[in-house]
Design goal:
The protein is mainly beta. Helix content is 11%, strand content 37%.
């Protein structure tokens, strides 16, 4: 693992490693030390731990993207794609609700780099499967 001096970078790097290994592991491991994000009820490995990033004034980072219908929308939910000591590369996620009322996310195919010097907090959301990665 890289030697990150920034504590937020260390946390985001762990999330990135977990996501990168999600498709390489046996999802039937239910031990407390399982080295992956978790399983859902269909025994498929989750592949994303969505995060929200917060500025020092307690407001979430929000970024714009254009959806497949050409509408410009805003999101504050991201998938970690890469991490350095001072920045994080993220994929913007679009929130949706499935037929049973559960929150799901779709890839927007829009990426951004965020300076970690501007970030004061990370909020991890429940692990999910983003099917269109």
């Amino acid at each position: 693992m890289d030697n990150f001096n920034n504590c937020l970078a260390r946390i985001l790097n762990v999330i990135n490693v977990l996501q990168n290994n999600a498709e390489k592991l046996d999802c039937n491991d239910n031990s407390c030390t399982k080295p992956f994000l978790g399983i859902n009820t269909t025994l498929l490995c989750f592949n994303t731990r969505p995060v929200m990033l917060y500025l020092c004034n307690n407001s979430p980072v929000t970024l714009n993207y254009t959806n497949t219908d050409g509408e410009e929308l805003t999101t504050n939910v991201f998938r970690v794609e890469s991490v350095t000591n001072d920045s994080v590369g993220v994929l913007l996620l679009e929130e949706s609700t499935d037929t049973s009322g559960n929150t799901t996310y779709l890839s927007t195919n829009t990426y951004a780099t965020i300076n970690l010097d501007c970030i004061c907090a990370i909020r991890c959301l429940p692990d999910v499967i983003v099917t269109n990665l």
